[in-house]
Amino acid sequence: MPGSSPGMTALGNGFAMSNLQDLQSQILADIAAASDEAALEAVRVGALGKKGSVSALLATLGKMDPEQRKTEGAAINLAKDAINAALSARRDVLKAAALDARLAAETIDVTLPLREPLAEAGRIHPLSQVWDEVTTIFADMGFAVAEGPDIETDDYNFTKLNFPEGHPAREMHDTFYFNPKEDGSRLLLRTHTSPVQVRTMLSQKPPIRVICPGRTYRSDSDQTHTPMFHQVEGLVIDKGSRLGHLKWILHEFCKAFFEVDNVNMRFRPSFFPFTEPSLEVDIQCRRGKDEIRFGEGEDWLEILGCGMVHPNVLTACGLDPDVYQGFAWGMGIDRIAMLKYGMSDLRQLFEADARWLSHYGFKPLDVPTLAGGLSS
Fold first, then answer.
1. Distances in Å between the alpha carbon of 376 and those of 92, 216, 344, 362, 367?
2. How far apart are CA 106 and CA 88, in angstroms?
3. What CA–CA distance (Å, rounded) separates 239 from 243?
4. Mean pLDDT over residues 342-354, rounded?
5. What's the start-to-end Cα distance of the chain, in Å?
6. Residue 239 Rama label (left phi>0; alpha psi -120 to 50; beta)
7. Of the listed ranges 132-136, 170-174, 239-243, 279-283, the one predicted with least confidence
């Protein structure tokens, strides 16, 4: 047939069988030589694809007479079936070889220690953990959490807390002041979280039961002091608040926080401008070589200051001291974290040492609860 390809001419002139067998043999050889699944797919497309050699032979059947189409169509389809069978067999062989190679490359050494799951690899900082422990305990007693700005006015930080201008107690706080404004006033970094108590009394009507955790700042740095540290203060304002209530709250807090059945406490007279009377609180402990155990022993350790809110503070915050009275307390979160978990240097809390955090930190799912244990 003039104009036809040699293979197609052969089909029409009775040479279809030899040409088809040669084509089939060549394709089967290419299949056997395919080294991977990508090469095998290339052979399949070259033979059975839309423009493949076998597909081209099938396309010629429409131009043949019925008898010839019947004979040569059967021969081409048999060749196609043989090629498909060879492709499938070779694909299975290549997949098995690829799996064997992968298994050899990904051999697991069962003697290695188990890797920690990624969800448990990180650590919660002890300060964050203790913060949550403290708020959990006081929330169970019915206290809300109040917050305020780190940058405060002199009025909220000192004056409304009964620190008159020039009072020597202002110097005890080693305050970080900002540059003076045009009117001579200066903002400052709060030296305690007591301004949050002032803001609460100015914005809420009694009864008030809040704790005020947050960052505070003083110009001081040594083994037990840092320029930035954390405090939590508590405030109760009501018509019938008494020192007995304050003592019970602090006693229950210490038992829950240090996770002991009983703790002896002593209250010593002290001085704070914003409370009258003012008290410092010690708890019974036993000092060992590397630890402090609470609820036993013959030693005492100071942990916080407290007292009845001074009438001048109530008046400055718009409350009538003849109607309302209250009590307040404050403690360092960093300090009680050191006491509970045996840390020797306060500065280590802020050094971002991953090894230290791995030792003292808490797993992400160790959420403190009173029922499940604060530090379980």
1. 54, 29, 22, 9, 9
2. 27
3. 13
4. 82
5. 91
6. alpha
7. 170-174
**Nearest residue to 76 via CA among 157, 158, 156, 7:** 7
Nearest to 72 by CA among 92, 85, 87, 57: 57
DSSP state of 204: S
DSSP letter at 266? Answer: E
| Distance of alpha carbon 272 from alpha carbon 308, whole angstroms | 10
Task: Kindly give, in sequence order, each residue whose CB lies less than 8 Å from that of residue 373, ignoring residues fewer than 6 positions away.
Answer: 259
Give the model's confidence band at 186: pLDDT under 50 very low, under 70 low, under 90 confident, else very high: confident
d(CA 82, CA 274): 98
Beta strand pairing call for 228-238 and 325-332: antiparallel
Q: What is the pLDDT confidence band of residue 3, given thresholds at 50, 70 and 90?
A: very low
Q: Which of 206, 204, 193 is nearest to 148 (CA)?
A: 193
Sign of the C-alpha dihedral, residues 347, 350, 351, 355?
Answer: positive
The tokens for 281 are: 């609180």
Q: In terms of Cα–Cα distance, which of 78, 83, 89 is closest to 44?
A: 83
Q: What pLDDT does residue 184 have?
A: 80
Residue 350 amino acid letter? F
CATH of 122-360, one of 3.40.190.10, 3.30.930.10, 1.10.287.110, 3.20.110.10: 3.30.930.10
Predicted confidence at residue 2, as pLDDT, reads 37
Q: Look up the pTM and report it.
A: 0.65
Short-list 111, 106, 7, CA closest to 57? 7
Q: Where are the domains of the chain?
A: 6-105, 122-360
Tokens of 17: 């069988």
Q: Is the model more confident about 12 or about 287?
A: 287
48-83 residue pLDDT tens? 888 888 888 888 877 878 888 788 888 888 888 888
